[in-house]
Write a structure and sequence with these properties.
By secondary structure, the chain is an alpha+beta fold. The protein folds into three domains: about 10-50; about 60-130, no CATH class; about 140-220, no CATH class. The chain is built from eight helices and seven strands. A hairpin with a 2-residue loop joins β4 and β5. α4 (about 150-165) crosses α6 (about 185-200) and α6 (about 185-200) packs across α7 (about 205-215).
């Protein structure tokens, strides 16, 4: 910088050219205590040890510890990626970059996915699914049995949650979440919340949790009245006789 202190530059390119000239002079100047230069050391030591550049550019990636859920998926940045179902319950490491997600077990890669940025959804590879539900720690019948222990409405909600998924096992996490609400609020309140959720056609974990948090399950459950269409007669309602007459004319 001292060598350039009296010069004025009007562009970054002009400044870089001046720095490059000084850098060449610096590298060709001998050391004070060594009879050689930086340029000579580079040619004799560094250049012979250089390796070719990687075929692909470096891609920044993050890592996190994770646990394989009962539905054999791992959560990465609010999205769920499948691994072979036999690894459910195991501790794994997720390595994720801008474009890909890798799941590693003991340093070995067990799954690779194209990264998705859609929160709350699943990316599932068909070969990761069990051939039969008995291969999973939890099954649809297991969830239904647990639901019936609480009540018929809770079992109905769990069935609806699983029916809404492309694969039933993708609903297991939500089902377990619903069942855990019974431990927090009591099974009686959970059953009442599930009855209300069914009437509201909102059989989801979030809806049931909201009902319990706002104590709507304690309110009387009134039947939903569906208004009759065109109950009030007025000149704009022509009735079926008008259209029958139009058909006869045609």
């Amino acid at each position: 910088m001292a060598a350039l202190r009296h010069r004025t530059f009007f562009s970054l390119a002009e400044l870089n050219r001046a720095i490059r000239e000084l850098l060449i002079r610096l590298n060709q100047r001998k050391f004070k205590k060594l009879d050689t230069t930086r340029t000579r050391l580079f040619e004799e030591v560094d250049r012979p040890a250089l390796k070719p550049l990687p075929a692909t550019p470096f891609e920044f990636a993050e890592r996190k510890k994770a646990k394989v859920h009962p539905d054999y998926h791992v959560e990465v940045d609010h999205h769920y990626y499948s691994v072979p179902h036999q690894h459910q319950g195991k501790e794994v490491e997720a390595r994720y970059s801008e474009k890909t997600v890798e799941i590693l077990l003991n340093g070995n890669r067990i799954a690779t996915h194209i990264r998705s940025y859609v929160p709350g959804k699943h990316t599932t590879r068909e070969e990761h699914r069990p051939v039969k539900h008995q291969d999973l720690k939890w099954t649809s019948s297991y969830m239904m049995d647990k639901g019936r222990e609480v009540g018929s409405a809770t079992a109905d909600v769990l069935r609806r949650i699983m029916d809404q998924r492309k694969h039933p096992e993708l609903g297991y996490r939500a089902c377990l979440g619903v069942l855990r609400l019974g431990k927090r609020y009591s099974t009686e309140r959970l059953e009442a919340a599930c009855r209300r959720a069914i009437v509201m056609n909102a059989a989801t974990y979030r809806s049931i949790k909201s009902i319990l948090e706002s104590s709507l399950d304690r309110e009387p459950l009134e039947p939903v009245e569906i208004p009759t269409a065109h109950a009030e007669l007025h000149p704009n309602v022509r009735g079926s006789a008008y259209y029958r007459k139009a058909e006869e004319v045609a």
